[in-house]
Amino acid sequence: MAIGIFFTIDCTQEQYDAVMRRLEAAGAAAPRGRRYHVAGPAGGAWRVVDVWDTPAEFETFARTLLPIMQEVGIPPVRPDVFPVHAIVDGRAHPSAPGAAGPA
Predict the structure, then answer these.
(1) Which class is 3-102 in CATH?
(2) Which among 5, 68, 65, 66 is positioned nearest to 37, based on CA atoms?
(3) pLDDT tens string 57-72
């Protein structure tokens, strides 16, 4: 079952970018099981939303991500995790096969 991960992180864009560079260097920039990654600033923090195929794939990735976040000075964060009911691809016409449906 697909899951959504929602983080509000107390960090700067520079810290976020440093994490992304370190993930790339670690060979973890495009981890198996992650369907989508969206990130951006919000009210002095950084918001991240991911969609993963399974909780286990996210947990495997987190073992690489969390130490990297700590290395760049980002305080520990607990994500909100929820089961994904539907994924809608806004690039597709609503009546197109596969445009919306179960995760």
Answers:
(1) alpha beta
(2) 5
(3) 999 999 999 999 999 9
